Amino acid sequence: MTRGKGARRSPAMESSLLTGDGSGWDPVNDFLVNCLRRIDARLLGYLDGHNELTLNTVKRLRFYTGAMVDGSMTPSQVADDWADWFLLTPAYAAAYGTLELADLGADARFPRNGALEATASLTEADRAYLSALEVALGAYPEIRTT
Question: Rounded to an integer, what distance in angstroms lies between the CA atom of residue 101 and that of residue 133?
Fold first, then answer.
C-alpha cells in the first residue's frame, strides 16, 4: 500500500491537518475511535495508547485475511474463530485504506458477518478485495501515524 503520487487516500486520511503551532493533528485516530465505538465499544480494546490498532491486532487481521485468500479458511471458519475480524476490517479499511480498496470492497459480495455456508466459495471480486486488504494490512507498520 505504498502511496505513489497518483494514489488516492481515504477521506479520513485526506483530512490530516497541521495545527497552528506546526504539530500534527491526525483525525484518522479520532475517526477510528469513533468508528469502533459506534460499532461496539468493546472493540476499543484493540487500540493502543495512541488510538491506533495494535500491531498484534493487525497481524491477526492479516493472518485471517491471508487464510481466506489462500483457501485454508472459509469466512464461516473465521467467524467461528474470531468474529471481530468482520467488525475490525471495515473500520481498518475506512480509516487507513485507499479509495481503490473501498471500491474493491464495494464490488465484493463478501459476507460482512461470516454468514456464508461452510461450503460456499468466495467470488473473484471477494478474493481481489481480500488480496488488496492483505497488502494494506501488511503496510500498516509503515503508515501508522504514531
Answer: 7
